[in-house]
Amino acid sequence: MRAGLARFLRSRDYDVVEAEDGPAALHAVATDGVDLVILDLGLPGIGGTEVLATLKQRGNVPVIICSGQGGEGARIAGLDLGADDYLAKPFSLPELEARIRAVLRRGVPQTRQDVISSGPLRIDRARRAVQLNGRPVDLRKKEFDLLITLACAPGRVYTHLELLADVWGSTEEWQARATITEHVRRIRQKIEDDPEHPTIIETVRGVGYRFGPPTDSDDGS
Questions:
Q1: Do the beta carbons of residue 199 and residue 121 sit within 8 Å?
Q2: What is the pLDDT of residues 115-141, one digit of tens each?
Q3: In angstroms, rounded to a whole number, what is the distance separating the alpha carbons of residues 88 and 68?
Q4: Helix H segments across the chain?
Q5: How far is the CA of 69 from the CAs of 74, 78, 97, 172, in angstroms?
Q6: CA atoms of 52 and 65, how far apart (whole Å)
Q7: 220 in a domain, yes or no?
Q8: Which CATH number belongs to the domain containing residue 6 in this structure?
Q9: What order of strands is seen across the sheet that includes strand 63-67?
Q10: pLDDT confidence tier of residue 213, bands split at 50, 70 and 90
Q11: Which of 41, 190, 209, 219 has a 20 to 30 Å separation from 66 between CA atoms?
Q12: Looking at 73, 106, 139, which one is the last position of a domain?
């Protein structure tokens, strides 16, 4: 399994360091400057839970657990131990890559705009407030979370898996894609001139969504 994951990730242009047991994993993190650890709990030498605890004591390297224990209790225990994400076997390789991207994004410092303005739309991140043509737009919590996630990277296409991970902290195993579709529909009803032909939240068929608003303009308002 380790060899298969390594081949897949290298084919996606990741640099991969393999470790066959717990001591080797700790050594690799200490010496190779890794950005993220994919950790199997069933490691020989030193168990995965002990490796995780040691890693978290040493620093903040993000860890994704891959485990054959898929029950809710095991997932909660792994996250409580400090894991940044938890995948139960069997899982798809594209889903793993989506989780990797999501976890790495969380750890990258980004310039945060407190206010994002685009055409008539104004999003105030700090106040969690949205205005359209100067009038307040009432968004539910997850609707706002989804909108701000897309708006912070205009033009970037977010896949369904990425949105489930970033906004809901979930996966297709636990949350249906229809959840995203319904939230996008609600947001469009509130901010689009024509929800049937959206220009702010655009659908990229077979992939996901992107924030594609009109060019910012300064109308003095």
A1: no
A2: 888 889 999 988 899 999 999 999 999
A3: 6
A4: 2-11, 22-32, 48-58, 72-80, 93-106, 141-151, 160-167, 177-191
A5: 6, 10, 20, 17
A6: 9
A7: no
A8: 3.40.50.2300
A9: 37-40, 63-67, 85-88
A10: low
A11: 209
A12: 106
